[in-house]
């Protein structure tokens, strides 16, 4: 299957770490074999650094991996883990710390997002995006067109042939916080109501008067299919702040966020009730 370089690197790190642990080999031994220190090995096993095909094959042989097909698939991941020229043109405006997320999102077949202040990027209209960027101090006014183009390009994953399943829980504040004036907000609400009719999209609103659990922070959960049918998918959570972002794939952390997601969807209005509520809010902006 076609995958972005970031996702290939992540699966490469997962498979190599699993093979090492199964073989009972220490990171110190790996570092000695590769001529690196253990810090570099740790970065590789977190998907932060790559591994050459030759080194991957050498380690797999050392780990006594017998399946030639498995070794070939892992070595192929090492061979295709990079792609030159991906972040050029209008894509170059994406901050380095966000690029990995864009790649993970591109390859996901399930996206679950909780938004607590702003309409999520995948659901934003062009005018809403531009209104946001006008007041964004980190965006050069001369690059706004490129940022808009990149965000609109990103939204194609909801419309492509094998579109991702996408579910959103939006705090009512996402609908009420006025970005760019009534006209822009009216069009944005209409756009949300339209997207809510797509078979691969589900939008729920968590109203202010909900007695259920809310969250003070937004997050995104992704499920990414494995490169081979026999392997499990990768479940991960993405959280960000002003200067940094974190990608969580620890099983316990993912389980905690999954439980939070279940609480949020249970506390929110149903998809159809949410759609009617969004249209009601839209009329208030008309």
UniProtKB/TrEMBL annotation:
InterPro entries reported in the protein's UniProt record: Cro/C1-type_HTH, DUF5753, Lambda_DNA-bd_dom_sf
Residue stretches making up the HTH cro/C1-type domain: 16-69
Give this protein's Gene Ontology molecular function annotations: DNA binding
The identity of this protein, by name, is Helix-turn-helix protein
Report the source organism: Herbihabitans rhizosphaerae
Q: Which Gene3D superfamilies match?
A: lambda repressor-like DNA-binding domains
């Amino acid at each position: 299957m076609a995958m972005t370089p970031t996702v290939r690197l992540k699966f490469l790190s997962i498979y190599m770490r699993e093979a090492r642990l199964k073989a009972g080999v220490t990171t110190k031994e790996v570092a000695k074999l590769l001529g690196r220190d253990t810090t570099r090995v740790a970065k590789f096993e977190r998907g932060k650094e790559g591994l050459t095909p030759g080194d991957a094959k050498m380690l797999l042989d050392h780990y006594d991996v017998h399946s030639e097909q498995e070794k070939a698939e892992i070595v192929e991941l090492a061979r295709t883990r990079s792609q030159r020229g991906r972040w050029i043109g209008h894509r170059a405006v994406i901050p380095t710390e966000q690029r990995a997320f864009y790649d993970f999102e591109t390859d996901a077949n399930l996206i679950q997002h909780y938004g607590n202040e702003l309409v999520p990027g995948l659901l934003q209209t062009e005018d809403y995006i531009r209104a946001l960027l006008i007041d964004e101090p980190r965006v050069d006014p001369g690059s706004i067109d490129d940022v808009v183009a990149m965000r609109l390009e990103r939204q194609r994953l909801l419309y492509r042939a094998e579109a991702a399943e996408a579910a959103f829980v939006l705090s009512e504040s996402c609908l009420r916080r006025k970005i760019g004036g009534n006209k822009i907000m009216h069009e944005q609400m209409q756009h949300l109501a339209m997207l809510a009719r797509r078979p691969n999209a589900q939008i729920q609103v968590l109203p202010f008067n909900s007695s259920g659990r809310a969250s003070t922070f937004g997050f995104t959960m992704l499920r990414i299919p494995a490169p081979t049918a026999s392997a499990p998918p990768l479940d991960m959570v993405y959280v960000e702040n002003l200067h940094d972002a974190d990608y969580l794939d620890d099983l316990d952390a993912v389980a905690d966020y999954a439980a939070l997601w279940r609480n949020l969807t249970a506390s929110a209005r149903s998809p159809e009730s949410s759609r009617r509520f969004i249209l009601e809010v839209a009329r208030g902006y008309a």
